[in-house]
Amino acid sequence: MKWSTFSSVLAAVASISPAVATCPVADVSIVRHEGESIGSVHRVDNFDLYTSDPDECGLEQKYDTAVLYLTDVFGIQLPQNRLLADSFARAGYLTVAPDLFDGKPAPEDLNTPGFNLTEFLAKYGPQHADPIIEKTIKYLREELGVEKIATTGYCYGGKYALRFLAPGRGADLAFAAHPSLLEDVEIANVTGPVSIAAAETDSILPPARRAEIEALLKKTKKTYQVSLYSGTQHGFGVRANVSDPVQKFGKETAFLQAVRWFEAWSN
Q: Considering the entire predicted model, what is its pTM?
């Protein structure tokens, strides 16, 4: 099944009998902000992988494209990350999210005594993340037979969403929300379509840096998109305060931005 618009996705979800589907279907949005996640964790090589399958929702899978979900520093252990991976499954995409932090992600409160973010990022830099992502891509290609891979990355993961769109790295297109530590060369080397969702208030991705990223993407001659969401802060793509309607809209619309990007450019 292929849905070309969000409304058709909702129609498909609404038509599923609760007796058949294990996913909640009463909500008017396919994006879940709370509740139990429906995916599962299993071991691949020497790391854990969170997998969310459209079959778990009683939906048909888009077998030719899978979503490689690259988390923020809070990892697959963060409920919001799992729920967002599940939301991609509801949109019809097999979604896998590797544990990039050996089961020891950053605490939800980065100001927790004894936690040093600089040391954490140094420990879990490309020398650590690259092999895990490479093995995940190999697993998708060789074990699951996936033809195309759409990377979606948030904050920390946004860097790698573009990094693995370089020649020979395995991804076919990318979406990143409020990416951090993204280097110029990683932008310049992309070989496929790139979509970015940016927060209005973001010290990591301020207006000047957004302009630089846009200029670098333009030079690649690849299809690209950079969308700015007012009333949002860094992290809104995953951890928005959904009691605030502006932030809730931003999170959900950034998700739909990713889904529409994948639908448009993975065919």
A: 0.89
